[in-house]
Amino acid sequence: MTGINWVAWGAATLSCFVLGGIWYGPLFGRAWMALVGISEQAIQQANMAKIYGTTFVLQAAAAFMLAQAMGPDAHWLLGLHWGLMAGVWVAIAFGVGYLFEQRPFKLWAINAGYNLCSFAVMGTILGAW
């Protein structure tokens, strides 16, 4: 836990949380819902406090792990590089699972795209501070 800039960690976590709200909201929300078979009614009935709270904790853990991997001497460009590499790694792992689960390519593109963008933003923020 050495070398972590906790302000950057918090900002990186929050940025991914906000990006997710935009990504799965106005940008791709309707398409994502149709592809996974979730209705507006199901979302309204879900325990959103649990979903958002757990999501925030998981994103905080991802930001922490990325910061640890980058080390204390990273700069924004190195952070962007680490973030993109992590995002590509996640996208590839999703791709393998989606192939065997026979999920639509469009669903993979939405989910993989979010992870690629969120890790890139996270890494850039962590490296910049």
From TrEMBL:
Keywords: Membrane, Transmembrane, Transmembrane helix. InterPro entries: DUF1761. It holds the Pfam family DUF1761. The chain crosses the membrane at residues 6-28, 49-70, 76-100, 107-128. The keyword Transmembrane helix applies. It comes from the Bacteria. This is DUF1761 domain-containing protein. It comes from Simiduia agarivorans (strain DSM 21679 / JCM 13881 / BCRC 17597 / SA1).
